[in-house]
């Protein structure tokens, strides 16, 4: 397959397309981060690293940045989309700073805003925005991480206030950011008990340290100790030994207790209330996905720039050494990952935009599901991409000075925090199945018609009219369609999702059999469940990319989208072949197209990473700057010929 | 698919099967490591960590362990297989110790032994075995890592000795273990120049530090600085500024220079000589593969033990929380990786045994190729496995105390050092193609008969007669064969290798066209080349597993082998479907079989990891010992109800 050349364009032109609706926020973040640079954390102890990160947070607070997303009536900017974009940009910098900022303003501040009421907002929002008070989001317990509904900390009404208790060590709060060192307050999630009745998980504001930084009476705090990465964040464990808080410590938007002990909630049912409360915390997942995308961009920027200058092995004809990015194997490592990073960028942008525009009282289920799915797919993509970038840089990629090791270590936990990816994908699939059952329930079983199905069950999230036009323009005979036909791409992704979901639903119906072991039916379909979620997210991502291309046509981005699609199809060829979607000839052609697209995009690789416009101050890796000599990163010892005492000089 | 239950057996019984020919070496290593435990490196600075690792090396030297592999006439044990097994066992401990031991005794000592002659052996072997002299293996340069033949350091004969010169910074020696701190000598690889003639790369022993640890005159040494992992190893960079060494510094087994400047070599041709010299260093790759296997075993032991006790989400019927390893998704993360780890173990054992038994003057090409291939496949497997283990342990897996972060960081470089995996697989494929061309050359093109092809081109490495019997017993109609039929497995793996190689060879013949751009032909087939190597290694691994089962039948191991095969087939379903090998029904059945095998092996998971018999002293992760409370890994701060000054206690 031959792909026509795409004209070169300046990286800045692409940056404009990538920056989108919150371009002003991105520009401000770039300027601020370029000026501030990366904190120098090379030889710090954990405590010193934490101190540096706290200083960075104070700088952020001072800049007013954290105010962007909070309500204007409390001094905020009232721009939630801008706040999420700003978090995404923090992903270009030190990720401990990003995570600690996320804990403070995203999780702690977000919980106060979303779960509290006027009283809490008045009291806490302004000081927390300005980091006058540092807080924790104390949800996870050692024994319960994914299954938060089963938390075992209790908050028992004692006639006047609440008594917070950690019943045993497995119910201690664990991995809590800001706990080990800086947090004064914690939003503590606990089973709310009034009399003999438990009303399920609620959140309360509990002081954990006094003004001098000492733990409050009844509070025990332990340091989680060193982690794989993110060591600038002070994660800790907290026990509550019958700690009393007043009645108004309860964040009572979704449940309150009167002075006489009567419980009120606008939402019936503990489960439904719990998920409503969790849903308000969606921003954490979106932030992680955004920062993960930034980390992938940074890793790719380093690896592509290195691959674009590094040479190895002589060319058989000229004898000149070949630039390693000219090798197909190197292109295959980096370019599909780069194309997927672009695709996820547009999906993320659209998700942020949807959240920003969603009316307060709208149904948030689709949004929550999309956030969960993109977080899972995006963070796994980052883990894989950073790994492949490290390997693509060989031994140089293993040196801390070249930044990839820290990117790898810091982002690793993204796949399991703010919702374990495997659990999140199950949530996504559950949502899809609910939609499916409603659809079937309304229409009766039988042959589900694909178009209706797509319209009603798997709901297009972006640029419906454009996508429908493209899909409808495809000839029905797949085999003859151009492999680069966008309508065909959309149709193939849709068809895959429909089929996977359809067969999954039929399979799970067995669980309704009176003789069936329901757990066993669901458990043995778990791989099918995960696939359903994955292909659903893939379709959403593609639609977002197509919508972006429709807003801003770009021949180069068009090719990038082609590579995203073809690499995705190639990774799933077993499914397409196994379900009679592709002939063997078509499957071979897909692989050929991926190779051809790698070749076609190779001349633009540098432009594509430069378009992320990551400030130079944040890419300190010598290999990303054509420096094959490296820096003097350690002690230099020189022997002198004249025999005088050799000199030891510590460079830097 | 239902798989009959396999009776439970004690882990010790499996350990016996795994330990194999060098069981005595393994037993000794376990006893020594259990007694010694892991060095406590938690809060060390880099310099202190290096000092601790050096102490561990001295302990090893003191124990006599490093002597195992060296020649008896110099006080060694004359047991190269034992030495490689001992390295593999070191992989259960601190990997900085393993790598530094590998540098000292494997690379530095190995080069002296293999490339030097009597004089060098007499002078260096005993002191280096005892660590009286620490040495470096100074091959890689900043500008040349994979393409070592193009090194640019020179050693020029000056009428009396050699002058070693680093022409510029890109020719400095880089990433050299033992260089930054402890090395006194270096085996330096340089272009040997006599008069106007370069004879290609040779190795010389060059002193780099004096007795006081100061760099020798003309030698400049720089620290590589912090790395992602392995920070107990002192990697450095070395420049030689016209450093003179005597004529006998040349390791002259394959090339010597007389006093009058006449060059002699038993091998004609610089290229052939170079590859002969490299081939003697095969043990480094085997050691890395072995240690990578040990690291994967340790990660799996931690994750499986945790998964076997950790509970999350209530069972829909009983309400009891489900043990996470009962979930199919968790089984799918860990059990195929565990099965592959078993398979690679037997392949490694067989490779070590082959090397051990190979006569001095035998053709080593198959062995070199196998070592390269197993190193690549094995280290990638370890990178993936440690990652999946980390994720399978969630937030707990991110804490240093649970060992997975360090395993991940330390093993990461395995995929690119001692030969970049991608480059190694290309070497493997090149060897296969050479064999193929010889075969075609002798018989003429046309239809290559599979059996002959296997016999002569892809040479069975293990238990030929058993494998042939199994293969011949398979009915010709694939579709009807039991998916768990071992003969069918062997046949399918063979057929895949033959087809991939066959089509690759035909494709590359185009390069011989006078009009063809040879580089372009090869480059555009690079993914095909890598696949050829991979499926070749897969076949070798399976044959080794089958041979092990033939020596020691075990129903449980038989199931493990089934899962290895089926998971391998599943990962490659796109190929089997795309090449008409499997019908879509067969492909679905493969996925069903993987699920069924996971279910069947689930009850044995703990036994399978316990069988590795990793000393408890080396598995310090609290989560591997049913401790869901964690340890007190950091500062504990308790608030006192009585208001007295809160106490800060540093645990441990």
TrEMBL record, chains A, B:
Residues 25-130 form the Acyl-CoA dehydrogenase/oxidase N-terminal domain. Residues 490-626 form the Acyl-CoA oxidase C-terminal domain. It is found in: Peroxisome. Residues 279-433 form the Acyl-CoA oxidase C-alpha1 domain. Residues 625-652 are annotated as: Disordered. GO terms for molecular function: acyl-CoA dehydrogenase activity; acyl-CoA oxidase activity; FAD binding; fatty acid binding. It holds the Pfam family Acyl-CoA_dh_N. InterPro entries: ACOX_C_alpha1 (IPR055060), Acyl-CoA_DH_CS (IPR006089), Acyl-CoA_Oxase/DH_mid-dom (IPR006091), Acyl-CoA_Oxase/DH_mid-dom_sf (IPR046373), Acyl-CoA_oxidase (IPR012258), Acyl-CoA_oxidase_C (IPR002655), AcylCo_DH-like_C (IPR036250), AcylCoA_DH/ox_N (IPR013786). Its cofactor is FAD. Its EC number is 1.3.3.6. It comes from the Bacteria. Residues 629-641 have a biased composition (Polar residues). Residues 136-243 form the Acyl-CoA oxidase/dehydrogenase middle domain. Keywords: FAD, Fatty acid metabolism, Flavoprotein, Lipid metabolism, Oxidoreductase, Peroxisome. GO terms for biological process: fatty acid beta-oxidation using acyl-CoA oxidase; lipid homeostasis. It is an enzyme of class 1 (oxidoreductase). Residues 642-652 have a biased composition (Basic and acidic residues). Belongs to the acyl-CoA oxidase family. This is acyl-CoA oxidase. It comes from Actinokineospora fastidiosa.
């Amino acid at each position: 397959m031959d792909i026509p050349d795409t004209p070169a364009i300046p990286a800045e032109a692409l940056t404009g397309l990538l920056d989108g609706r919150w371009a002003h926020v991105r520009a401000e973040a770039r300027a601020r981060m370029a000026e501030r640079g990366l904190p120098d954390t090379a030889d710090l102890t954990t405590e010193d690293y934490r101190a540096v990160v706290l200083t960075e947070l104070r700088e952020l607070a001072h800049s007013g940045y954290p105010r962007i997303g909070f309500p204007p009536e409390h001094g905020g900017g009232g721009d939630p989309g801008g706040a999420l974009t700003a978090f995404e940009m923090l992903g270009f910098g030190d990720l401990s700073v990003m995570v600690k900022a996320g804990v403070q303003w995203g999780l702690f501040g977000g919980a106060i805003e979303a779960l509290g009421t006027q009283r809490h907002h008045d009291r806490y929002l302004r000081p927390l925005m300005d980091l006058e008070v540092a807080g924790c989001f104390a949800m996870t317990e050692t024994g319960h991480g994914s299954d938060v509904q089963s938390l075992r900390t209790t908050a028992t009404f004692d006639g006047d206030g609440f008594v917070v208790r950690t019943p045993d060590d497995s119910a201690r709060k664990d991995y809590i950011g800001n706990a080990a060192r800086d947090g004064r307050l914690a939003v503590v999630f606990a089973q709310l008990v009034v009399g003999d009745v438990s009303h399920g998980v609620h959140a309360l504001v509990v002081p954990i340290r006094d003004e001098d930084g000492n733990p409050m009476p009844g509070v025990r705090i332990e340091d989680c100790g060193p982690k794989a990465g993110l060591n600038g964040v002070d994660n800790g464990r907290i026990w509550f030994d019958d700690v009393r808080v007043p009645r108004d410590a309860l964040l009572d938007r979704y449940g309150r207790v009167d002075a006489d002990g009567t419980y009120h909630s606008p939402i019936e049912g503990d489960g439904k209330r719990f998920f409503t409360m969790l849903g308000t915390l969606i921003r954490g997942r979106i932030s992680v996905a955004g920062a993960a995308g930034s980390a992938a961009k940074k890793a790719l920027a380093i690896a592509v720039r290195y691959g674009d200058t590094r040479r190895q092995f002589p060319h058989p004809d000229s004898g000149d050494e070949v630039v390693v990015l000219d090798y197909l194997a190197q292109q295959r490592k980096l370019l599909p990952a780069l194309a997927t990073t672009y695709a996820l960028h547009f999906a993320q942008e659209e998700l942020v935009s949807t959240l920003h525009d969603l009316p307060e009282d709208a149904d948030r289920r689709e949004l929550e599901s999309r956030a969960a799915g993109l977080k899972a797919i995006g963070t796994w993509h980052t883990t894989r991409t950073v790994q492949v970038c490290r390997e693509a840089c060989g031994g140089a990629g293993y040196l801390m000075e070249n930044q990839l090791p820290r990117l790898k270590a810091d982002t690793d936990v993204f796949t399991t925090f703010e919702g374990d990816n495997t659990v999140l994908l199950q949530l996504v699939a559950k949502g899809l199945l609910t939609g499916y059952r409603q659809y079937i329930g309304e229409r009766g079983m039988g042959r589900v018609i694909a178009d209706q199905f797509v319209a009603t069950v798997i709901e297009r999230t972006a640029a419906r009219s454009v996508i429908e036009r493209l899909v409808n323009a495809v000839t029905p005979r797949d085999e003859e369609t151009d492999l680069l036909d966008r309508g065909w791409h959309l149709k193939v992704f849709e068809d895959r999702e429909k089929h996977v979901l359809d067969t999954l639903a039929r399979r799970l119906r067995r669980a309704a059999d009176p003789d069936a072991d329901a757990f066993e039916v669901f458990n043995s379909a778990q791989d099918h469940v995960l696939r359903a979620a994955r292909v659903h997210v893939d379709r959403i991502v593609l639609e977002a990319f197509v919508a972006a291309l429709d807003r801003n046509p770009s021949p180069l981005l068009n090719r990038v989208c082609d590579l995203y699609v073809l690499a995705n199809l190639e990774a799933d060829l077993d499914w397409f072949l196994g379900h009679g979607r592709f002939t063997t000839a078509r499957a071979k052609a897909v692989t050929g197209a991926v190779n051809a697209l790698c070749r076609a995009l190779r001349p633009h690789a540098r432009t594509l990473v430069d378009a992320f416009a990551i400030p130079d101050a944040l890419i300190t890796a010598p290999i990303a700057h054509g420096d094959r000599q490296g820096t003097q990163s350690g002690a230099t010892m020189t022997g002198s010929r004249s025999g005088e005492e050799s000199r030891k000089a510590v460079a830097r």
